[in-house]
Write a sequence for this structure.
């Protein structure tokens, strides 16, 4: 298993990115400025995009594993890799998600805790209604992970 940082032709991962964020113009808002990681294990399994939100803050904007490969540990492996990659670069790592118990549990099991909610995010920012497990998504729930690194101590 290996994870590569992708710097060129990021659009070739669009099929998988659309699994994590189903509207292409929304993906395009962060894909080029973001850092894209691809996990391979006998072929592509998982992708994730992380953007810099502020001087000390990064945000996981997208993570997706092909449906047939979900539940095999690839997503958690990617999150652990991202935590390792960013823990010395920032003091806060955020991830926003719809109000879906499965996904919230996934992030909490990876060590994230609830941060805050952006009301009506999915209604205001998408051109169609988004459903997950039969439930319309409305608010964006943000989870966070804080790092106690040198930069933090200088703030
Ligand atoms: C969320 C996601 C990236 C997790 O990736 P993954 O490769 O399946 O992750 P893992 O195999 O490490 O599974 C992590 C946990 O989630 C659970 N899980 C993963 N996929 C699941 C699924 N489709 N249904 C139910 N549970 C699932 C696993 O059981 C596992 O729990 P455990 O550690 O207690 O066994 C993946 O489900 C996905 O691509 N979902 C669609 C896109 C999406 O919603 N992205 C997040 C947007 S915020």
């Amino acid at each position: 298993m290996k994870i590569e940082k992708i710097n060129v032709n990021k659009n070739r991962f669009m099929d998988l990115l659309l699994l994590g964020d189903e509207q292409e113009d929304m993906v395009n808002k962060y894909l080029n400025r973001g850092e894209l990681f691809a996990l391979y294990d006998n072929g592509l399994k998982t992708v994730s995009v992380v953007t810099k939100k502020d001087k000390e803050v990064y945000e996981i904007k997208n993570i997706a594993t092909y449906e047939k490969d979900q539940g095999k540990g690839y997503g958690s492996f990617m999150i652990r890799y991202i935590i390792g990659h960013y823990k010395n670069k920032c003091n806060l790592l955020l991830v926003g998600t719809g109000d879906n118990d499965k996904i919230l549990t996934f992030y909490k099991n990876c060590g994230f805790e609830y941060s805050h909610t952006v009301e009506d995010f999915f209604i205001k920012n998408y051109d169609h209604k988004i459903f997950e497990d039969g439930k319309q998504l409305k608010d964006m729930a943000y989870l966070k992970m804080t790092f106690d690194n040198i930069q933090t101590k200088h703030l």
Summary: The radius of gyration is 15 Å.
